[in-house]
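Co-fold these.
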Amino acid sequence: MKAATATLASGQRVASVGNYLALLKPRVMSLVVFTGLAGMLVAPTAIDPFTAFTALLCIAAGAGASGALNMAYDSDIDQLMTRTATRPIPMGRIARGDALGFGWTLAAGSLAVMALFVNLLAASLLAFTIGFYVFVYTLWLKRRTPQNIVIGGLAGALPPAIGWAAAAGSLALDPLVLVLIIFLWTPPHFWALSLYRSEDYARAGVPMLPVARGKKAARRQIFAYALVLAPTGLVPAFIGLGGPLYAAAALGFGGWFVFDAWLVMRERDETQEPAARRLFGVSILYLFALFAALIIEHLMGVPPVATLSFGGWA
Amino acid sequence: MSDEEGSPEARERRRRSIAIALVLAGLAILFFVMTIVRLQGHVTAFFQ
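Predicted complex below.
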């Protein structure tokens, strides 16, 4: 995010409102809110609009807090990578300590509001999500194992379950299918990015799969995950969550995802990595299309293809 | 307006203060509305 920045006489920059907004990773936040909204809408219990708004605000704030804390704890490696060097902390616009204070305050605030005004289950899931992203992914796994994004991806996958819990006050296997879809989507999405940003990650010493195991292994893994993801994406249509629009989106975009993953596996241009760049874009489109289909169907009252449900538990 | 008030640093600080004020006002409204929403059922039940 481009933001105006004032400079003190001492040379130290003054953080702008835009710099603090950039700390929240607004693009990631928007996807998190979107998937959380889908989880909320497909829940069998209706939620009043005020509580729904509050829950989404808390999910957004929690995601923003996670982003700010990630940027604070990773500021040393962010300054080494082209993609992240323009973030507010490496640019010297916000002090690391200020970002930590901002992030932890936002995290505590979002959890308190969720617990007080929505329910404890949704707050607990949000707390788990923030904690998992910050402690397990950012501080533990990211710099230690090529499986960082596989395990750490659970944090980004949980918002549909939080949305469902906010509406229903309980959990079921149905929202966990949506969690599984995002969980399986995360590795090929980030490995596609790390294929064409591998020099960045190597410079920063982050053992992303293409850096630690080589690009060939990463290409195979991307294709393998795509083969598992595409049929898993169809499951909501068979358990009473998705209707014909969802089924069509999962089939069409799932096929596109697998095809582009296959092109990534066959790619020989290791300098530009055009197939990986395309797959990165298609992966975002895939997730957006699936969850948009769920939201549209539920807003329009389109009945699901199947009525089989896993049931739930409190 | 003095030089200090017109400096980029002062302008940025003012923008941040306005943003914080707006966020606090929004939170106050949200807390009020949610308190009413959460209380409503109990209040009507009390008078029935």
